[in-house]
Amino acid sequence: MSGLIGKKVGMTSIFDENGKNIPCTVIEAGPCVVTQVRTEEVDGYSALQLGFDDAKTANKAAQGHAKKAGTVAKRKVVEFQDFEGEYKLGDAVTVEVFKEGQFVDVAGTSKGKGFQGVVKRHGFGGVGQSTHGQHNRLRAPGSIGAASYPSRVFKGMRMAGQMGNERVKVQNLRVLKVVAEKNLLVVKGCVPGHKNSYVIIER
Fold first, then answer.
1. Coil vs helix vs strand at 12
2. Which cellular component, as a GO term, is one annotated location (predicted)?
3. Percent of the chain clearing pLDDT 90 (strictly above)
4. Which domains does the chain have, with CATH numbers?
5. What SS3 string covers 37-95?
């Protein structure tokens, strides 16, 4: 599966040929450097390791690893198995691996929301009414299990807790535009993460 590491620039909207307004996300995709080539003979599988975005500081191991590819240490390094095309150590992979009109999958880390209640986290409607004597149960989850049997709360019960800050993949996003000279990729819809967060684009 071919792919690329990118950085989310932000969202905008463009008009198609019929005048319809389409929301889209702009991604700075690459250029990525091939930092390692995995082969069946040596590693037991074939893959390309790509590096993106120069690191300001790096340990000696990362610097030595990048030096073999003739580049500097990278902040984000990702492996793509069964990469299409022939590449060797130190080659640059640009946004031109994508074509307008094709569909891609974009994975990233979603925005962290902190500790949230069941209404925001799971879409509960809340219990009770604002009248009839209750005063603080409007956004409560309600019953989470019976008392005498089973005398416990089942695993997987939807309750309040940490929300967001997890890996999310959005599939089948159409590529609306490829701006090769600026390394920009414009895809339809939204992708996970905040601005300037790293994303992985696969096709």
1. strand
2. ribosome
3. 63
4. 3-115+168-202 (2.40.30.10), 116-163 (no CATH)
5. EECHHHHCCCEEEEEEEECCCCCHHHHHHHHHCCCCCEEEEEEEECCCCCCCCCCEECH
